[in-house]
Structure formats: structure tokens, C-alpha cells
Amino acid sequence: MTITITTNTGRSFRLAGAAFLIAAGFGISAPAVAADPPIIVPNLLCPFGCGVTESDTMLNTMMARGGERVVLAAQETPGYMYNIRAMSEQNRWKTSVFGTEDTVIQLAIQGGSPELKEFLPEKVPIKFKLLYGEAFWIQGKIFLTFNPAIKTMADVKGKRISLGLRGQSDWGVFSRLVLEHGYGITPQNSDIRHVTPGVLTQQLIDGTTDVTTTAVGAEANNKEWLIGGFLRQLEATGKKIHYIDVDAAALDKVNKKFSTTFLPLKIKAGTLPGQDREISVGYNRGFKAAHETFPDDVAYQIVKAVAKYGPQMRDLHGLWRIWSKETMLHGLSEENVHPGAKKAYVELGWWDEHKKYPPMTYPKIN
Questions:
Q1: What phi-psi label fits residue 49: left (phi over 0), alpha (psi between -120 and 50 degrees) or beta?
Q2: Structure pTM?
Q3: CA dihedral over 234, 318, 322, 328, signed as positive or negative
Q4: What is the mean pLDDT of each run of 10 residues along the chain (366 residues)?
């Protein structure tokens, strides 16, 4: 699968292929010779085509070429809902890190409940520790249509709504939570379909659905935006895209029910394709995380490497355009940060800046 991501500065990036092709395509030089073999850390990510697997493969290569003591080894997985369950296995705790989101960790602690068992059959009652933030993810908290008569979320009820798969955190799970618990839009009163992002996009183009979500990413400074290939497909039809506001009150309802940290965001007019007015959306934060028993020194080395290579990676891969110091710190706190990661931030002189941002908090574990 190949997708295109375009930043708001107009730069386009193709995300595809195997790791060696990605590395070779950017002409990365031969690796530096390290005195000792590096520590290889499995890095659980998402399917090829999601973007993160490809972008982290580039980071892995940069770390290896730079002779870093620790090298992340990108591993394709079915996605973040899979990762949180895989990381419940004790044999991974001291060896692996994983891609996740604040809300995935929070919901997994409550897995198996009547509201969540469709997506998380069993709870994962673990307070995983955060290493660094990597993105604000908006898909699943943004909705759009080609139908000008659908102006608000109240108009969405009773319509045909195409969402991502139940195993996709943003596309399928979070979109359902926002619709059901924020607006009372359920499979009982609306035609809700769970399909892949490619299919839901094509359904809107073909007119066989009324409302979908789509891929948009941002960073803490709201200066760089990732516009996913699926949204570009909708733009390419030439049809007028109508964005439907997701208001802060709806996100508050979800947060109160599930002890989650979905956050509201205003996107200025002209940021997204066909966006002729300011719109309200929600977002949650993507992180790299690990178990609390993951070695402190290895966590320290990982964070130092991301801080070191982040500025260079911005010029090498589309997803890294949203890298920033602020995004790395957004959501971290004394309670949730991995001790090794905190040591790195203190050494960098960054740590106190985390206080500017709302933290990821843990639900009560029963």
C-alpha cells in the first residue's frame, strides 16, 4: 500500500516500500563503526502504509549510521490496538517499545467493559510510561461530507456513516466513541459501516455513503499539518468538501465517561483542502511508550537520539515535518514519564517545559 502525505507547505512525500528502499532512496551514507554492537530494541508500530512504520525505519537507519549505542528496530504490526494488547505480555516489558496514543492506554485499562469490549475484549491494566510524543492525530475526531445539507453533527444521525476498522484506534474506535458518547449517534439509529480508510474514502467519492472521517495530523505549535492521501483523493474529485464541527462539549462527554484526554482544536480556514471557514475538531496525542521495567539507560538513549536526529529527519520524511521539542513533551508528566526519558529531558534542559501542556492521566485501575 502506498499513500501520499502533503504538508501545509506544499511538500509531498510518498510512503511505501521496504525499509532498505526507504534508506537507499535518501542516499544515507555507510554506517559508522561502533566499538560494541548496538542494543537492538524492537519498536512495535503499525501496518506498512500507515506512515509511522516507514518514518521510523528512517530513524532506525539514522541511529545505526550514527553509531548510536541503541538502535530501534521498526516492526510492522496490525496497529496500535494490537500493540497495547501485545505489550501485556511480560516477555516484552524489558525489551520493546511501542507506538501508541494517550487514549489507547487509557481505554485499554478499562477494556472488557460493555462500551469497549467490541474494540478491547479484555482490559490491559498497565500504566505504561511515555518516552516521547510524536504527533497530534485528528482522524476519527474530524468528519466531512459532500452533502451541503449536512451542516452539523445533529444532521449526521440517521445517515450512512463510513468509519475505519474496529482494530484501528483513530479511524474506527475513537470515531465511534465520539459519535456515540458525544452525540448519541449509534449503529441502532444510523447506518454505520466499519471498513478500511481506502474503502471509506471511495464510498464517499462514489456516493454510497454520506459521512466519513479522514487523515489529518498536526504538532504542538500548529504550524505544520499533515494532509493524508485520502483527503487529497477527496480534493481531487473537484467536489466541495463540507467539514462538520466536532465541538469541545462532545469531547468533554467522552472524557468524563472514559477518563480520556481527547482535546479540542480549532483549525484556521484555508489549512485543509476546501476549508473555507474555521472548524472545530478533536485530537489525541501519539507517543512512543514502554513498560516501567524497561531499562532506564536504554530509554534515555532513545530520547536523546530522537532529540538529536529530529531536526534532520524533518527534511527526510513527511511525517517528521511535525517533529518538534514541544510535541515530544506535550502530555508528559512526573507521573507518566519513563524515568530514563525524564533524565534525557533534564539533561537537554527541556523538562520544565512539559508543565505548559495538559498531561496524559491514568484512569483508576479496578
A1: left
A2: 0.89
A3: positive
A4: 39 37 38 70 89 87 93 93 97 97 98 96 97 96 98 98 96 98 98 97 98 96 92 97 98 98 97 97 98 98 96 86 95 98 98 97 91
